[in-house]
Recover the amino acids of this structure.
């Protein structure tokens, strides 16, 4: 699945969720394919069921996180500026 993908790549991550390695390690058959110290899990393989779980937003355009941030600020929410 990761053949040909650079060692480091950018994927937008929701500011409102968190997925941790410690949560999936006890589950037999799951293996982490992509993760980051800041963003957490990115891609997990479930070999037994031939599935992949992506926890991030490949569908986001380059300005989607900015639009979400602006929307949340305008609605009066106390939000932090997204990283990068």
């Amino acid at each position: 699945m990761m053949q040909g993908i650079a060692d480091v790549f950018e994927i937008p991550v929701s500011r409102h969720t968190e997925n941790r390695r410690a949560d999936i390690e006890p589950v037999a058959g799951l293996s982490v394919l992509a993760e980051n110290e800041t963003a957490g899990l990115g891609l997990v393989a479930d070999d037994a069921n031939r599935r992949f779980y992506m926890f991030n937003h490949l569908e986001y355009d380059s300005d989607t996180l900015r639009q979400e941030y602006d929307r949340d600020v305008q609605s009066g929410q106390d939000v932090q500026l997204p990283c990068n």
In short: The longest helix spans residues 64-74.
